[in-house]
Amino acid sequence: MMAYQPIEHYGIIGNLRTAALVGMAGSIDWLCLPRFDSPSVFAAVLDDARGGRFRIAPPSNDMRHKQFYWPDTNILITRFLHPGGIGEVEDYMPVGGASGAPTDQLVRRVRVVQGRMPFCLECRPAFDYARAQHHTSISEDGARFDGPGMSVALVASIPLRRNGEGVLADFVLDEGQSATFVLRLLDPGHDAGHSPGTGEAEQRFRETVTYWQRWLSHCTYQGRWREMVQRSALALKLLIYEPTGALVAAPTTSLPESIGGARNWDYRYCWLRDASFTLYALMRIGFTEEAARFMDWLAALARRQVRA
């Protein structure tokens, strides 16, 4: 088990359909698939012992951590600084099927930028808020987790070993080396697929970079604190459910404002007050398409209510 992390120690990634929280210790502690309001696959942010997580990090605790985003994108970098080297985990979710890849997947690329570093991987899903059991199987391409009504695959460029209903791996990378891991939602009857090679992984990364930088290029704000304003815009964009244009108030549920408090609502739905503040902020800096799509969604919802 790991200690609970302060919420400010988490970065967010997403694909405009769902989002994941990635801790500074390299652990994905919240992810629902395939949508924001789907049951959780990882929920250690709520229950450290049973909630499920996907962690990649060096085994030593004697190191510094740092998190930041690739410039002008929602690709999150978690950096580990150790006397023996510097390693990074790049986390992102392809948007719009970059490189023809399915949208319901999460990519974790581990790199060593200096020296030589060992890493430990632990992937332990807990479907349906840890209420559902699942079966784990290992193949040469990685691992498969089959639960009631949902199957998830972890394709890996290194061998995995089973540990209970989760999987573990230990590996060492030298300077300039990388390893790629892809967690993807499986359609019924489909296999896990292959792990992307170095070239394919780099192409997928670059296309995701291009998507976010192209979107951000429409920002018209030129005032002070431009970098902070743009970073806020990127975070707000992650709260938009692209198929409809609706906005979620937040990607999480059951996190009380104070420990033991009652204000622990599910924020993975559209709260009109919160959405109006978000749209006003985006419109002020040039993102008018998001407002138009939201109004289309709201009008369609109103017509549906009238017919009912």
Topology:
Blueprint: E1 10-14, E2 19-23, E3 27-32, E4 40-42, E5 53-57, E6 64-69, E7 76-82, E8 85-92, E9 105-124, H1 127-130, E10 135-139, E11 142-147, E12 150-156, E13 161-163, E14 166-174, E15 178-186, H2 198-216, H3 226-237, E16 240-241, E17 246-247, H4 272-284, H5 288-307
Walkthrough of the structure:
It is a single chain. The protein has 308 residues and is of the alpha+beta class. It folds into 2 domains: 7-215, Distorted Sandwich (Beta-galactosidase, Chain A, domain 5); 225-307, no CATH class. Helices cover 22% and strands 35% of the residues. The protein has helices at 127-130, 198-216, 226-237, 272-284, 288-307; strands at 10-14, 19-23, 27-32, 40-42, 53-57, 64-69, 76-82, 85-92, 105-124, 135-139, 142-147, 150-156, 161-163, 166-174, 178-186, 240-241, 246-247. It has a 15-stranded antiparallel β-sheet that branches. A hairpin with a 4-residue loop joins β16 (240-241) and β17 (246-247). α4 packs antiparallel against α5. The radius of gyration is 20 Å and the shape is globular. The relative contact order is 0.13. The model has no long low-confidence stretch (mean pLDDT 92).
Residue share in β-strands: 35-45%
Helical content (DSSP H or I, runs of 4+): 10-25%
CATH-defined superfamily of the largest domain: putative glycoside hydrolase family protein from bacillus halodurans
Task: Determine Rg (CA atoms, Å).
Answer: 20 Å
